[in-house]
Design goal:
CATH topology: Rossmann fold
Shape: globular
Number of strands: 7
CATH architecture: 3-Layer(aba) Sandwich
Structural class: alpha/beta
Largest sheet: 7 strands, mixed
Number of helices: 6
Radius of gyration: 15 Å
Helix content: 25-40%
Order of helices and strands: HHEHEHEEHEHEE
CATH class: Alpha Beta
Length: 196
């Protein structure tokens, strides 16, 4: 299977959500439920003052992250997905935005705004240069002592890079140490922590 040579754009995801409201069965799949539980368990047992979830889709993980964050910003490139997420997660401390990273990264995020940044099933939609750019932007948005959670599918796809390659590129470019790793049959979890 040949890989795509460009980062997947807004039109790609709009078309997917136009065909199906939950194309990856985030709300109904046992696999997804188990992966979300493992993802949350990989994080330290604490609350976060401010979280950022990049690629929130229909908000299933968002709802779970909301219980761990005093403030949470959840973004996605597909407005149809965000409409479902807004219906599913109505907590006042959760804000949603239609943003395509890295191109539309708000300047306000780059001022050490977050102590948790989550990128679940999103980086491999980008070409290597864009992954490295996102890593640098996340680094500038992360507060000292902050945490980043990466989750990636490991199966075959036609996405620009594999889950393993996406993780390696991001970790190398972010310059934040990996402190926890978990590898399952279908996915990997990597937790990064800024010791400063």
């Amino acid at each position: 299977m040949s890989r795509r040579t460009d980062s997947l754009d807004r039109a790609y995801f709009d078309a997917i959500y136009a065909r199906e409201s939950d194309p990856w069965q985030f709300a109904t799949s046992d696999y997804e439920r188990q992966k979300y539980a493992a993802s949350l368990a990989a994080l330290p047992d604490r609350r976060f003052a401010a979280g950022l979830e990049i690629g929130c889709s229909i908000g299933v993980l968002t709802g779970q992250l909301a219980g761990r964050c005093d403030r949470l910003v959840a973004v996605d490139v597909a407005e149809a997905a965000l409409a479902r997420a807004r219906q599913a997660v109505t907590a006042a401390h959760v804000a949603f935005a239609n943003v395509r990273v890295p191109e539309e990264w708000p300047a306000a995020w780059s001022a050490r705004s977050f102590d948790l940044i989550v990128l679940s099933e999103v980086l491999y939609y980008l070409v290597p240069a864009d992954i490295e750019r996102v890593a640098g932007l996340c680094r500038t948005a992360l507060r000292p002592g902050g945490w980043m959670l990466l989750v990636h599918y490991l199966g075959a796809t036609d996405y620009p890079v594999s889950g393993d390659a996406a993780t390696s590129l991001f970790v190398s470019a972010a310059g934040v140490p990996v402190v926890r790793q978990r590898r399952e049959t279908g996915y990997r979890i990597d937790v990064l922590h800024d010791p400063d």
